[in-house]
Design goal:
The chain has 654 residues and is an alpha/beta fold. The chain contains 18 helices and 24 strands. Strands 1, 2, 3, 4, 5, 11, 15, 16, 17, 18, 19 and 20 form a 12-stranded mixed sheet that branches. The chain has a 4-stranded parallel sheet with strand order 7-6-8-9, with helices on both faces.
């Protein structure tokens, strides 16, 4: 059976999702296997740790896939076209098909978007009488961004209209950057425009959010258009006028060409797919009363929703969201005090049983490999170890039998899965700048954001357990050495129990200290409370003011909790916006007083910090006694109480 590889930037963005769907469709119709590699764009280190996913590029070999399809438009976002062409050459002799960027000697699928895009601009000028534009574009290195910008300027020029440079803004195809850019523009120049043209849908959604927050109506006051025709473009409020580059059709055609390469057939150098216009509410062409109309085209013809798409939106998606997120929440809660890989593997298998995942395989290196942002290439070890396999269809047996193999010659051993899976996704195991291996899971037809979220969570949990075992091995050796080394070992142990951001206990440190407190309470016949805390609105702070502001908010909350705590109390950060406290001698009455003190401390900080954001925290409590002192159960009870508090706040704020 032929194996088709698809390399994309990530698997949660709409562009990638549409590419995956097109390849999936062709593979399903022609009995092919799809291997999906979310490798991230080269030189993406400026976007945090995205570059770490590039480690799995080493699996793109002729031994692992028969042909490879590249999402070239996104993978080359941060490099020049010449640099990307040089990278493609390194894949030889692997047969390659490019989507979005024409590479010499490589069959390329391109969207013929110029006509549709220029029709869109003409439509805005002639039908909607727009004269003052803002253009949200992307880096000059991006081939698509450069082309679309040129078409835009040429169309304006044909109407003898010209753009001020201040109104051509690089938002890097990013929603948050687009929102911030529009807010900044309005603060400097006011609203001296009547239309925002965005070179992708994500930036359009960011622009709409900014305008809405300023009380600007869309489309009555300002028209906004995008490019990509993502699923959200159809169902957003307002629905988005955009260009449909037929992404799924492009990747479907690319898969057909890839098969021709495998079979030795002659292929063309360039294949074109015609893009189409989709005019919706955001430009005023679809009215609110047209309840079943998705869009109209350049000639005014309506295109309606299908019953299938409406049913999926109303029934399928919410059900998947609730099921998957709840199961992931349970996994994270149950793994708060994980100390061994075997226990983690048991929890992972239980998680798989409760979700849409069918299986999982984990592969690790003997030692973590450092992968720094300035490293031009990462070399995967020639020896990789399979350490875990679990399949629902294989009598639910956990396989932890180690098997060593060469990943350059086989991405995974043939006997890894007992069942055949038509679609598999690969994801790296990493922590900080260290690579530990990779994970493989079968790909189901669900929202791919869940896969990114699930795999990211697994990566952190697995690497944490591996790191802990490595630290324990190192500690055993250090204990037998001289006092200087023992002192160093003690310092490392302290670091492993301290949260790097807030300098208080991390979840492991809290678990250790809280269990000591509970053990003492049992022997001395004492009572107290376990508190589980959750910051309010951290995601909004991150989205609005950036992750650095979010970090400052987390630090502020940790200091507030320290201020209201005694030296004998145990406090820890469980990760993200979650904290826990163990307080001896506390009852329901004193808990209410503590809640009030936290509110007062938070209010004091909000008044004096000069930060734009406000901090507050919700708390759930569980009473412990000499007879009821199981930390894991107490945390679970406190978490349920916290959920009630959050639900009540949400209801009150509506």
């Amino acid at each position: 059976m032929k194996k088709i590889g698809l390399a994309v930037h990530n698997i949660h963005e709409e562009y990638s999702i549409e590419l995956i769907r097109g390849v999936e469709k062709y593979c399903s119709e022609n009995d092919l296997q799809l291997l999906l590699f979310p490798i991230n764009a080269q030189k993406s280190e400026n976007h945090g740790f995205e570059y770490r996913a590039q480690s799995i590029k080493n699996l793109l070999t002729p031994e692992n896939v028969d042909a490879l399809i590249l999402s070239s438009g996104t993978l080359s976002s941060f490099i020049t076209k010449e640099e990307f062409i040089e990278y493609v050459k390194t894949l030889s002799p692997l047969p390659v098909v490019s989507i979005g960027v024409d590479v010499p000697g490589v069959p390329t699928i391109l969207s013929n978007s110029k006509k549709a895009f220029t029709n869109n601009i003409k439509h805005l000028i002639k039908k909607h009488h727009r004269k003052n534009f803002i253009l949200l574009c992307a880096s000059e290195n991006n081939y698509d961004a450069v082309s679309r910008k040129q078409w835009f300027l040429e169309t304006l020029e044909s109407f003898k209209m010209y753009m001020d440079k201040t109104k051509i803004i690089n938002a890097d195809f990013n929603k948050i950057r687009a929102k911030n850019a529009i807010n900044l523009y309005i603060s400097k120049f006011g609203v001296d425009f009547d239309c925002i043209v965005c070179l992708n849908d994500g930036m359009a959604f960011g622009a709409i959010e900014a305008l809405t927050e300023h009380g600007i109506r869309i489309p009555e006051d300002i028209i906004v258009t995008g490019f990509d025709n993502s699923k959200r473009a159809r169902f957003s409020e307002p629905s988005l006028s955009t260009i449909d580059p037929q992404i799924s059709l492009q990747s479907y055609m690319a898969t057909q060409v890839a098969c021709d390469l495998i079979d030795g057939k002659k292929t063309d150098e360039i294949y074109y797919v015609e893009a189409t216009e989709r005019f919706r509410v955001s430009c005023g062409c679809v009215k609110g009363r047209w309840l079943l109309s998705d869009s109209v085209d350049y000639y005014g013809r309506r295109h309606n929703f299908s019953k299938k798409s409406l049913y999926s939106l109303i029934h399928s998606v919410p059900n998947i969201v609730n099921t998957e997120l709840y199961a992931l929440h349970q996994l994270i809660q149950n793994s708060l005090a994980i100390v061994s890989l075997n226990e983690l593997y048991r929890l992972i298998s239980k998680y798989i049983d409760r979700t849409s995942l069918e299986a999982m395989a984990i592969f690790t290196y003997d030692k973590p490999k450092d992968y720094l942002p300035d490293t031009t290439s990462f070399k995967m070890p020639h020896k990789v170890k399979r350490v875990f396999v679990y399949e629902k269809l294989n009598d639910k047996n956990i396989n932890t039998e180690n098997k060593i193999f060469n990943p350059y010659k086989e991405a995974f051993p043939e006997d890894t899965f007992k069942h055949y899976y038509r679609k598999l996704v690969f994801y790296p195991l990493f922590e900080s700048t260290y690579q530990y291996g990779y994970i493989i899971v079968p790909l189901e037809n669900h929202d791919y954001l869940f896969y990114e979220l699930i795999l990211e969570s697994f990566s952190k949990e697995i690497t944490a357990s591996i790191k802990l075992e490595l630290e324990q091995e190192a500690n055993t050796i250090l204990e037998n050495k001289n006092s200087r080394l023992i002192e160093y070992n003690t310092r490392m142990a302290t670091l492993s129990t301290t949260d790097e951001l807030t300098k208080i206990n991390n979840r492991r440190g809290f678990t250790i200290e809280a269990n000591k407190l509970l053990k003492a309470a049992k022997s001395k016949n004492r009572y107290g409370m376990i508190l589980f805390c959750d910051m309010d609105g951290l995601k909004k702070i991150n989205d609005t003011y950036g992750h650095e502001a979010g970090d400052r908010a987390i630090i502020a909350e940790s200091k507030i909790l320290q201020n209201i705590s005694r030296k004998s109390d145990v406090i820890g950060r469980f990760g993200g916006d979650e904290f826990a406290l163990a307080i001896e001698g506390m009852d329901k009455k004193s808990f209410k007083l503590l809640e009030q003190r936290i509110i007062e401390e938070s209010n004091t900080y909000n008044k004096t910090s000069k930060e734009k954001f406000k901090v507050s925290i919700s708390i759930g409590a569980a009473q412990y006694t000499p007879a009821n002192n199981d930390l894991e159960k107490l945390l679970a009870i406190a978490d349920k109480e916290l959920y009630k508090v959050k639900a009540k706040k949400h209801k009150e704020n509506k």
